[in-house]
Amino acid sequence: MDSRLITLPVGAVVPTFNCRPYLPMHLASMREWADRVEEIVVVDSFSSDGTVEFLREHLNFPNVRFLSHPRGLYESWNFGVSGVRAKYTYFSTVGDSITPAGLEHLVEVAEKFRADVTVSPPRSVGPDGRTLKTIRWPVDDLINWWAITAPAAVSSLHAFLMSAMPMSEGILGSSASNLYRTELLKRCPFPTHCGHAGDTAWSLQYGLQSRFAVTPAVVSQFLIHPKDFSIGDEERVRLFELFFDIGLKACRESDPGGLLPFLENLRAETAQLRARQRAYDRLRKHRFPWVLNPQAWSLRSRRNQQRQVVAAMKSRICAQFGVQPRGTAQ
Asked: Which CATH code, of 3.40.50.1370, 3.40.50.880, 3.40.50.300, 3.90.550.10, is assigned to 3-229?
């Protein structure tokens, strides 16, 4: 049977806002699978540059619906999901892409493992289209550590820890490479108060109550903008504290094998590390050369010692709950 005759049980949510210049390339990618999915839901945030008009003209498939919603990436995602009727949801953000075979593969993996979330490692590229090999996601580490060579189920605890240990990145990585069970996202929408890190916040808030599957296949491309990894120190601290709040709350509600006290201690030690880092940074910014200041060297040494404390604590947590490379001694 021609695989193109098979309709995938997928609803693709396409969030847009004044992105007309990028649409020709994005639609060229989408057309490869647009007639394979059950539905496409475009959620536009009142674009004024001809985005919607271009989409209506060129995304002319019978399974396309257009919705409007105020600005906000995750707000638009959640609104789009509310209108999806298909079993699974895929987010087709302008600039990101997936192959038809890749989308079909994610569906097959989700069905095989009855997964709520199916995760794959994205190929990260810069604006010039070149692969950014320095960008790594927790899912890359998980695949390498456990020598995953074929699709596999991942426990909810391990998926949660792969977000909680780095705390700045989540197991979900780029949603351009993931497939979600629609019913779950309707019950558990993406947090909207975490800037561009709603994916990470979601994995911390709902990871312990979700079923995960991982495939090592690279089936998608994620566009990295310079601004994506350039937030200020104040915002970084805010998100770090917020992620800990979300993760601790999730642990208190489900108590996954006694993880809560470990995570509470990690937060305390991390707070101490941040305090020592701030004290050191203040002296480095002083007009007097910090390399000639004995106090600065003392603060630097204390900061480095605390880094080691935090790293050792993370290693103990990973060993305690089995999130470490295969073959590593327990």
From this structure: 3.90.550.10
